Amino acid sequence: DAGVIQSPRHEVTEMGQEVTLRCKPISGHDSLFWYRQTMMRGLELLIYFNNNVPIDDSGMPEDRFSAKMPNASFSTLKIQPSEPRDSAVYFCASTAGQWTEAFFGQGTRLTVV
Amino acid sequence: AQSVTQPDIHITVSEGASLELRCNYSYGATPYLFWYVQSPGQGLQLLLKYFSGDTLVQGIKGFEAEFKRSQSSFNLRKPSVHWSDAAEYFCAVGMNSGYSTLTFGKGTMLLVSP
């Protein structure tokens, strides 16, 4: 398996624009997690899904953030409208069952100017 | 709520020297504990984990960690550091109920000098 695949790797956008980050989890994994990494706050869990169903989105910072998982092989994290403080590296991770190893994608580095 | 403290932001170790990275956690019950490594521009890779049993756990790349309940610690060690170990290291704690969600420390950047 190619591992967790995120796209794009880098995104530069202007404030106010919509941004969509994409994630393909490892085939057969049943849980998917979105994390955000910043210098100030470190790694924070934004939202996670189990069997395509959102379980907890309490980490989503604002209503400008939304996430979907329409099927077992694809998830999106959308920011609309984007703001400079959203600049961060966004990671997607997946697991195959409870407390098995979480495999992380390489992340999407988002810069909002 | 659980929390993780990694008191050292940066550590510099000479190649061949031993390494210990500190991690303290706060959690009301027996935690699940993890160490991850992140190389520049890369995602996180699991080094080792502790769920129960033997408090000294072995991981990949020659790393080990020891769970000390009395000190709420889970320090990472390696007897001899290689230049390729230079990276950022994250300690994480998970609740022993519910899904596999992790709370991460802020990380420790390891620099290896010749």
Share of helical residues of chain A: under 10%
CATH fold-level name of chain B: Immunoglobulin-like
Poorly predicted spans of chain A: none
Instruction: Average the pLDDT over all residues of chain A and give the rounded result.
Output: 94
Helix and strand pattern of chain A: EEEEEEEEEEE
The biggest beta sheet of chain B is recorded as: 6 strands, mixed
The coarse silhouette of chain B is globular
**N-to-C CA distance of chain B:** 41 Å
Give the helix proportion of chain B (percent range): under 10%
Specify the oligomeric state: heterodimer
Tally of separate helices of chain B: 0
**CATH level 1 class label of chain B:** Mainly Beta
Helix and strand sequence of chain B: EEEEEEEEEEEE
Largest inter-chain contact set: A-B, 23 and 21 residues
Would you report the number of β strands of chain A?
11
Task: Compile the SSE list and pairings.
The complex is a heterodimer of chains A (113) and B (114).
Chain A: E1 5-7, E2 10-13, E3 19-24, E4 31-38, E5 42-50, E6 53-56, E7 65-71, E8 74-79, E9 88-95, E10 103-104, E11 108-112
Parallel strand pairs in A: 2-11
Antiparallel strand pairs in A: 1-3, 3-8, 4-5, 4-9, 5-6, 7-8, 9-10, 9-11
Chain B: E1 3-5, E2 10-14, E3 19-21, E4 24-26, E5 32-38, E6 44-50, E7 56-58, E8 64-68, E9 73-78, E10 87-94, E11 102-104, E12 108-113
Parallel strand pairs in B: 2-12
Antiparallel strand pairs in B: 1-4, 3-9, 5-6, 5-10, 7-8, 8-9, 10-11, 10-12
Describe this structure in words.
The complex is a heterodimer of chains A (113) and B (114). Chain A is mainly β. Chain A is 0% helix and 55% strand. By secondary structure, chain B is an all-beta fold. Chain B has one domain: Immunoglobulins (Immunoglobulin-like). Chain B is 0% helix and 52% strand. In chain B, strand 7 and strand 8 form a beta hairpin. Chain B is globular. The interface between A and B is medium-sized, with 23 and 21 residues.
